[in-house]
Amino acid sequence: MRVLAAMSGGVDSAVAAARAVDEGHDVVGVHLALSRAGGTLRAGSRGCCTIEDAMDARRASDLLGIPFYVWDFSERFRDDVIEDFISEYQAGRTPNPCMRCNEKIKFAALLERAIELGFDAVCTGHYATLVDEGNGLELHRASDAAKDQSYVLGVLTEEQLRYTYFPLGSTPSKAIVRAEAQARGLTVANKPDSHDICFIPDGDTRGWLGERVGAETGEVLDRNGDVVGSHEGAHAFTVGQRRGLKLGVPASDGKPRFVLEVRPVSNTVVVGPKEALATAEISGVRFSWAGRAPLETEFRCHVQIRAHSEPVPALATWQNGTVTATPDVPFDGVAPGQTAVLYDGTRVVGQFTVDKTVSAVPVNA
Predict the structure, then answer these.
(1) Where are the stretches annotated Interaction with tRNA (predicted)?
(2) Which residue, among 279, 302, 305, has the nearest Cα to 357 in the 3D structure?
(3) Residues contacting residue 83 through CB under 8 Å, at least 6 positions apart
């Protein structure tokens, strides 16, 4: 099998490529250049896809004896991930750029080019498993629950799954992967994992957005519409946020307040008690199925709304172009723009981008 190994420069993708070589596949390594900022370098464990990462990926490929290339996907990344991130915040939503990158770059743009060049599969270092029991290919959680990445892969379609290859999915722990890398002589064996948003390596999302969308003073309201403070830009707030509110009017019960809603049109932020974050229903029109679509328009499932949150049992409905999830126990602080991934046991059923939320607590409660 001809395999294109997507090599980020980290330990996971390097070991995944090595395992593909061991299995006898014809492997070619490729690193995606997602930024044209030539001086970009990794800061500790922040960021990814830097010059340093490209060099690490090349060294790993040389050690494995496989061809290596760097593909410039910076324009596509800018248009499909960075610009989407900015526009979502401007619309008062909370986007997940890792989901968009997997959807638009790693398993769309990269996969399209791989197929055009005659490759049979794209290999990555993601922790997830593929299962085929005769009913079509299914995406499942990884063996290592702590490293499971099936949530961020929930955007993959049945067609894309047919061309994916996850050699690390059945590995019991990340420690085993690092030990294997060490034994193979890979210099990235002890390289720290990247985290945060890769194109904001210093972690200052508020400052980064402020430079690009501007900051305009607005009002902070309570649930009754009364002004309780002011802000310097609604884009800097997300649902569930507690810190940095700087409210001038204390709550009547003395308890802390949280961001409940961001309204970009009026440039206002709505705050309230923590219990008001309870969400009784979420829905969205942008959805996809990871493999075969559900047989019924109403089905039981578990819903995960963040990469590392606990899945919540729920009833999902799929009709009139909208997917709706009603949890048995309310979700905690869901914001429009977040991704809800639906599971049947360990299997990823599909996902949708949250467009609408319904609070479990009435305004006057």
Answers:
(1) 147-149
(2) 279
(3) none
User: Is 198 a catalytic site residue?
Assistant: yes
Contact between 316 and 293 (Cβ < 8 Å)? no
Its pTM stands at 0.90
Is 272 labelled as part of a ligand binding site?
no
Domain 2-184 class, CATH top level: alpha beta
Annotated binding-site residue? 11: yes
Q: Any known ligand binding at 13?
A: yes
Q: Where are the domain boundaries for CATH 2.30.30.280 in the chain? A: 215-272
Give me the pLDDT at residue 110, please.
Answer: 93
| Per-residue CA distances from 198 to 13, 92, 202 (Å) | 17, 21, 9
Q: Was domain 277-359 assigned CATH 2.40.30.10?
A: yes
Measured distance CA(121)–CA(27) in Å, rounded: 10
Separation between Cα atoms, residue 289 and residue 127, nearest integer Å: 19
Does the annotation flag 1 for ligand binding?
no
Mean of pLDDT values over 306-322: 94
Torsions phi, psi of 87, nearest 5? -65, -35
pLDDT in tens, 187-209: 999 998 876 688 887 778 878 88
* Annotated binding residue 244: no
Catalytic residue among 48, 98, 123, 198: 198
Helix (H/G/I), strand (E/B), else coil: 20: helix
Instruction: Work out the end-to-end distance of the chain between its first and last CA atoms, rounded to an integer number of angstroms.
Output: 61
What is the second-level CATH architecture of the domain 215-272? Roll (2.30)
Tokens 């607005």 sit on residue: 218
48 included as an active-site residue: no
